[in-house]
Amino acid sequence: MTSQSETHKQRGTGQQFRPGKQVLVSVNSMQSPLERCSPTTAGRVLLISSASPVRVQRRIENRGIAIEDVGLIPLSESEYAYDGPLCHTDPVSPGDLTGLSIEFVKALDSLLSGDWVVFDDLATLTMYVDDQDIVRLVTHLSRQTSERDVTGLYGVTRSAIGENLYRVLGQSVDRTVDLQQ
């Protein structure tokens, strides 16, 4: 039996994630694992998202997560004007996996055991890079995240990526969870 201190129990979902585990989370289009699996008992959160920082800030506030505990790596082809309290990097093009990896490694240095990495939707990347590059990226991110005992949630809209890519991505993580409504 797992004690509450060994698990992150998600409000409203009944899902439990052990610290350091990497999970591929099936979500509906335009949904973030953060919305359904809010890390309510966690420390800090590193969020990788193609949503605007304003929208991300609203999501965070709606989930009751302290804004100062969240860092954002925005995936965007263009610059944006955001002057809010959310700590963020400069936008990274979804096609620039090297740039994304570099920003991820820098941000990961600030996370500790029990913290979270949440990738909103890997399907965003399918418009810019090959499937095999996405698999290599997820394998790289999940390995580094797991080594730091940080929980990783990698959101994916299954209908947008196809069953083959979903199956292969599922092999890059510890488990898969379906949170589609």
- Lateral strand order in the biggest sheet: 6-5-4-7-8-3-9
Low-confidence stretches: 1-14
Order of helices and strands: EEEHEHEEHEHEHHE
Mean pLDDT: 86
3D structure, described in words:
The chain is 31% helix and 19% strand. It is built from six helices and nine strands. It has one domain: Rossmann fold. Helix 3 runs parallel beside helix 4. The strands form two sheets. A seven-stranded parallel β-sheet has the order 6-5-4-7-8-3-9, with helices on both faces. A two-stranded antiparallel sheet has the order 1-2. It is globular, with a radius of gyration of 15 Å. It has 181 residues and is α/β, with parallel strands linked by helices. The two termini are 28 Å apart.
Keyword list:
single chain, 181 residues, alpha/beta, Rossmann fold, 6 helices, 9 strands, globular
Short description:
31% of the residues lie in helices and 19% in strands. With 181 residues, it is an alpha/beta fold. Helix 3 (97-108) packs parallel to helix 4 (131-147).
Question: How do the strands and helices of this protein lay out in sequence?
Answer:
Elements: E1 8-9, E2 16-17, E3 22-26, H1 33-36, E4 45-49, H2 53-63, E5 70-74, E6 87-88, H3 97-108, E7 116-119, H4 131-147, E8 151-156, H5 158-161, H6 163-170, E9 175-178
Parallel strand pairs: 3-8, 3-9, 4-5, 4-7, 5-6, 7-8
Antiparallel strand pairs: 1-2
Helix pairs in contact: 3-4
